Amino acid sequence: MKEEWDVIVIGGGHAGIEAALAARRTGCSVVLISANTRRIGEMSCNPAIGGIAKGTIVREIDALDGSMARSADATRLHFRMLNRRKGPAVWGPRVQSDAAEYARAQQLCIGNNRIEILEDEVTALEGSTAKVAGVRCRKNGSIKGKTVVIAAGTFLKGRLFRGDEHWKGGRIGDISADSLEKDLVKRMFHVERFKTGTPSRIVRNTVKIEELEVQESEKTNFTFSYGKSPIPENEEVCYVTYTNRRTMDIAKENLHRSPLLAGRIEGTGPRYCPSFEDKVVKFPERLSHKIYVEPMGYRSRHFYLNGLSSSLPREAQEKMARSLPGFERAEISDYGYAVEYSYLHFAEMDATLRLRRTDNVFAAGQICGTSGYEEAAGLGLIAGANAGRFAKNLEPLRLSRMDAYIGVMIDDIVSKGADEPYRMFSSRAENRLHLRQDNADRRLYRTGNRFGILSEVKKKLLAGNIEEADTIRKILETETVNGIQMSKWCRRPGISIGSVIKEANSLVDKDEGVLTSVLLDEKYSGYIERNLRRSESKKNLEKISLRDIPSYMKIDEICWEAREVLERERPETLARAEKIPGIRPTDLQGLLIYLGRKRSTWNNSSGGEAQ
Amino acid sequence: MDSISPEIICAVATPEGTSALSVIRVSGKGSFQLIEKIMSLKKNRLRGMRRKVGRIFEGGRTVDEVVAVSWPEGKSFTAEEMVEIICHGIPGSVRAIIEILIKEGARRAEPGEFARRAFGNGRLSAVQIIALAALWDTEKDRSVFTGETEKNCRKLMREIEKAREMIEGNIEFGETHLNEEDESIQNVFTELMTSAKDFREEAASIEKSSRVMIMGPINSGKSTLFNVLTGKSGALVSDEPGTTRDGSSCFLEVRGRRIQLCDTAGNDGIGLDRTASEAVINGLHGTDRIIWMSEGGRTAPTEKIREKAGEIIEIAAKSDLKNKPETEQILNVSSVSGEGIEELREIISRVPGSMSLSCAAKRIEESVKESYNFISLKEYDLAAELLSEAEIEARRIIGRGENIQLSVERALAGMCVGK
Ligand SMILES: Cc1cc2nc3c(=O)[nH]c(=O)nc-3n(C[C@H](O)[C@H](O)[C@H](O)COP(=O)(O)OP(=O)(O)OC[C@H]3O[C@@H](n4cnc5c(N)ncnc54)[C@H](O)[C@@H]3O)c2cc1C
């Protein structure tokens, strides 16, 4: 064991893994401490990675050289591109993986990257809160580190519930990190409670699958990883079934035994991934809900019931499952349950995921108030990279909302927080047309490279894609179709990649993925530019100088009190003015109007962002 | 006097001349105290929402018997402390009261200043200001209340939001839940498109036409240009006497846009006497565009004009006389040879530019239509994008009006004293 580690990562979930790997890529020595090392990389809930917006996060992780994409590709059993018929900017790649294989693949990654794994429970941070010296472990005592990443997931004072049963744990069969939580609270970190839940798992051969609707995997050579990982041969289909009146009635009859409704759980649950009993209460008019029946692995003996999450008592869960067509004799192997846990209040973190009150502690994953593997992994990558960079005395990495879903997520959770576990949605991104799954490589290459978190292989691959895109763009700019520049022509609705290749021979040998992606850039370019302009003009508050204002007292557009305050304070920029107490948004608007008129730019029909 | 800060403004809100009653508006922090003082009321008598009958004294002499109605901060038209003095409509006593107010520390309000304060304090939204101005606009025959247009804009915004929520819901959950939403999206759009069209029409009807003013040194050929622009191909709509004090103005249609073109007598601060020049420059507030012409483009507009005006189109006049300017920024125009006239017309037709209410309303309508197109093409991503554009636009109209600053300015500038 080392005397002092550069980075200590607490937790071997999706966040902890990416954090450890990213910190390692910055060249740091890393130890990953997990209470149960055999469960590192475990999928606590459903055996799937990706989805709408989430799938794009996975590709962003890959562009920043994380491992989630590669492991998901390597263990995939089933693939679907969600929203294929709703516009390429909202396509969501999703795979179902072999859950056990996935965890193994991730563990392998950790092992291959010379990250030390330690099985122990972290009970406290060591040293002062402002500058933490390391962590204290139950068995191994104190471990020194320059920086610490906390990625404890659902384990902080985790409490599990099912009907009237309740016990301690961050996940069934795991410990609850009560001591660590106590230490954080003692150090005056503001924590709150959330809850989430998981459905029951069904014994496969007790289900009459011939009665279920089949959903085949799409035949495609798509991979999450831009590196084109080989596609495994093993495949599974998944099934679809629907709940009915009886399912609903059973849930209703047992509502009083739900730990949430009976008041035993106080934490807020996820609105968008609710338990079935929540759905019954919230959408009483909906008589039927779609349930996906997903195998937990290749030829696995277990099915996962996606959409039937529940923490009702065992008998109720069993009755509910058996009310589904084809499930009349189904046996449950693992019952669903809910977990309630502590997470850090948003004000504790900054945009680099550092805990504000410390110099060197970072947070990632579900303890930041999010939910979902992809969200956790995305946060982990950034927290890990920043912990590594801090240990090396380097400037931290920040992703902007305009550049990545991960940027949107971090900005949302550190500036607004959430009143329920935060899940990524594509609609959260104002620049959604740019944040696509097809261009994460090109969007993030520069950041990844500049902040030194890309391996040589990745760097070469991504740089190659960028070069390819440049070549393609040049061709589009020089070639014409019927006298129209090709880059303009291809923006028309209904133009397919095939028809573009037909028009320009020089595109024939180009990488299909990159070509498609560049064509989409063209298609959306007008909108993307407008969004960027809008975000710029927000940022411009910082750039708008107020130094030339001779006197505020004569500016009619702002109220009198504001004039006096501004005259006294004389802020340098509009952004500073915004921070002065007593200055209201309306005053800022007034100043803008005033400055606009002075500069005679506001009725310029070619420059404003309002067009 | 020190206790009263100079921010209190006052003005007569009723027409000049003799009438049964007149109303004087007073607004700003300290208004209560001021009125209490001149009416010799006990302290805090006007605090809250009160009505007090009393007399205004000066040097022991009664000036008038009045009713003072007070509104506390946040509840008044301007959102400031405000008092309305209802007095007798005798010009002499009204004037005397105003003078007393000024002596006691208030200052005369500028035209539209009450409304400007209401806007600045977030009491009136941008669209309300415009609608308010339209109420007094004799150019139109309308009897709407100020709230109406805003209400319609809000309704439109809600409909946009609803449609967008549906599309977003379909994007996020369409694949995983039962998919029955396509039809309701259609229905929502049918309604939305009607609302967008209605709002566009309403916006156009409450908005004044754009104003373009021709300025420049004496003898630079302004009147000739004015005649060329209005006389020949621009259809003359009507003469409007008395809009400008020192020039003529007329409404014309340039490429389908209604424009008020004004000619000013020579104005460079030299050719006119000082007061007349001042008046023109002050009248610029709310002018959408200025055509600044000088021979060969050699004389630049003064700082003062630049400061007051919006955008300036600089042209070099009499280009037929080989007066070509050196810079390409300046358009060569000759009223004799016709050089540059079409270009100028094109430029004028684009006034008022994008920052007007009617343009914003049109953008909303277009975005909604385009969004619907994308729905039928099954490009939900773009459909949602366009709706969010429309939503931002609408939100600004009922907010601070960043996207319609021109209309707001023009509305404020067109208001009378006391409004
Ligand atoms: C019951 C359940 C239901 C869920 N349901 C959903 C759902 O419906 N939808 C959804 O999107 N997501 C759901 N998830 C969440 C999803 O599993 C998480 O979002 C994701 O796994 C979070 O990753 P993480 O890395 O933050 O934490 P986790 O995957 O929870 O990993 C935490 C890791 O930290 C370790 N650890 C914690 N404390 C200590 C300590 N003191 N010392 C040492 N090691 C420690 C643990 O051993 C573990 O390795 C559910 C999770 C659970 C447990």
Q: How would you describe this structure in keywords?
A:
heterodimer; A: 611 residues; alpha+beta; FAD/NAD(P)-binding domain; DNA polymerase, domain 1; 3 domains; 9-stranded antiparallel β-sheet; 7-stranded mixed β-sheet; 21 strands; 35% helix; disordered C terminus; B: 419 residues; alpha/beta; Gyrase A, domain 2; Rossmann fold; 13 helices; 13 strands; 41% helix; 20% strand; disordered N terminus; binds flavin-adenine dinucleotide
Structure description:
The complex is a heterodimer of chains A (611) and B (419). Chain A is α+β, with helices and mostly antiparallel strands and 611 residues long. Chain A has three domains: 5-428, FAD/NAD(P)-binding domain (3-Layer(bba) Sandwich), CATH 3.50.50.60; 472-530, no CATH class; 544-605, GidA associated domain, C-terminal subdomain (DNA polymerase, domain 1, Orthogonal Bundle), CATH 1.10.150.570. Chain A is built from 18 helices and 21 strands. Chain A has helices spanning 14-25, 54-63, 68-74, 99-112, 178-186, 245-253, 276-282, 314-322, 373-391, 405-415, 440-450, 456-478, 486-489, 497-503, 512-543, 560-569, 574-579, 585-599; strands at residues 4-10, 30-34, 48-50, 76-82, 92-97, 116-119, 122-127, 132-137, 141-150, 159-162, 165-168, 191-203, 213-215, 238-242, 290-295, 302-309, 332-334, 337-344, 361-363, 480-481, 484-485. In chain A, strands 10, 11, 12, 13, 14, 15, 16, 17 and 18 form a nine-stranded antiparallel beta sheet that branches. In chain A, strands 1, 2, 6, 7, 8, 9 and 19 form a seven-stranded mixed beta sheet that branches. In chain A, helix 1 runs parallel beside helix 9 and helix 3 (68-74) crosses helix 4 (99-112). Chain A is globular, with a radius of gyration of 26 Å. The termini of chain A are far apart. In chain A, 53% of the residues are buried. Chain B has 419 residues and is an alpha/beta fold. Chain B has three domains: 9-123, 2-Layer Sandwich (Gyrase A, domain 2); 148-206 and 355-412; 227-349, P-loop containing nucleotide triphosphate hydrolases (Rossmann fold), CATH 3.40.50. Chain B has 13 helices and 13 strands. Chain B has helices spanning 31-38, 91-103, 113-120, 126-135, 146-173, 182-206, 222-231, 274-282, 303-308, 341-349, 357-376, 380-397, 405-413, and strands at residues 9-12, 19-27, 51-58, 61-71, 82-89, 107-108, 210-215, 235-239, 249-254, 257-263, 289-295, 311-317, 331-332. Chain B has a seven-stranded mixed beta sheet with strand order 8-9-10-7-11-12-13. In chain B, a hairpin with a 2-residue loop joins strand 9 (249-254) and strand 10. The longest helix of chain B has 28 residues, at 146-173. Classes of the chains: A alpha+beta (611), B alpha/beta (419). At the A-B interface, helix 15 and helix 18 of A face helix 3, helix 5, helix 11, helix 12 and helix 13 of B. Bound molecules: flavin-adenine dinucleotide (FAD). The site of flavin-adenine dinucleotide has 37 residues of chain A, from helix 1, strand 2, strand 12 and helix 9.
